[in-house]
Amino acid sequence: MCRAASDVRRPPILGSMMGKSHALSGAVGWLGGCAGLVAAGHPVGPVAVVAGAVVSSGFALLPDIDHPGSTVSRTLGPVTRLISRSVSDAAGAFGKATCDHCDRRPGQGGHRLITHTVPFALAVFAIAALAGRVWGVTTSVVIVGFAVWLATHTALRPNTRAEIIDALIPGQVRGKRARKYAAALGSLVAAAVVALAVREVAEPGASWWWVGLAAGWGTLAHSLGDSLTHWGSPLFWPARIRGCTWRTVGTPRWMRFRAGGAVERWLVAPAMGLFGLGAAYLLLAPFARTYLG
């Protein structure tokens, strides 16, 4: 059994990194991995680089489906809010059943439980990799489209997404309610366009198992990012850490920062952006030397 709640210390602040930071971490991590492979003499195709970055970015938002107030829970309004509440309730019940003495803050529900663990990321990897392996590009472009759909909700403002529909049917998107629905439809259109583009350039008969790596990495990147904040994440469930299976772990406390605070906005996010630019340069340099002399 876990240690008594009175013995389990919890940091005072509960929060999750901003959606943009999560999405950026997924994409940047994938680009960095691809750059490392290229530097080691293992070429990575452009489709894998771009599609993988997109998938990693979108799936880096997925773990917060256990939080009804998250970006991913608002993507389809009441539909995804209902799904989010159901996941949160199920995760909370599962957490209580497996560790009755764990201390949970009032109103936290199932947030930062099973969806913020390494086993969950491995499960996402296995499912997506198997789908890519067995059904190839057809299933993989659906995964790409799903990731784009998620990513657009944090990368693009609602008005920007609504403009996509306004450009397709000029003058028909009028009023607040119309723009709200147009924003949701704009995300779907963007997802469909990117997915179809990937399908067009994909090599026929190629194995797409690697899409599981991108999906799994994006999911894990989210939890790793939350481990940098005050609350941490129960990454290593079901391993017992100091007597508790849901013990949150993270960087040393003096290195952690407040979610959505100045450190994240002005230090962490820009640092990830610079790392991503460096990785992109390493990936583009061979192409530039070959085709641009």
Write up this protein.
InterPro entries: YdjM-like. This is LexA-binding, inner membrane-associated putative hydrolase. It comes from Asanoa ferruginea. Keywords: Hydrolase, Membrane, Transmembrane, Transmembrane helix. The chain crosses the membrane at residues 113-131, 137-156, 181-202, 208-225, 266-288. By secondary structure, the chain is mainly α. It has a domain at 18-78 and 119-156 and 188-226 and 257-288. The chain is 60% helix and 0% strand. It is built from eight helices and no strands. The protein is globular and about 60 Å long. The termini are far apart.
Give structural attributes.
YdjM-like; hydrolase activity; mainly alpha; 8 helices; 293 residues; single chain
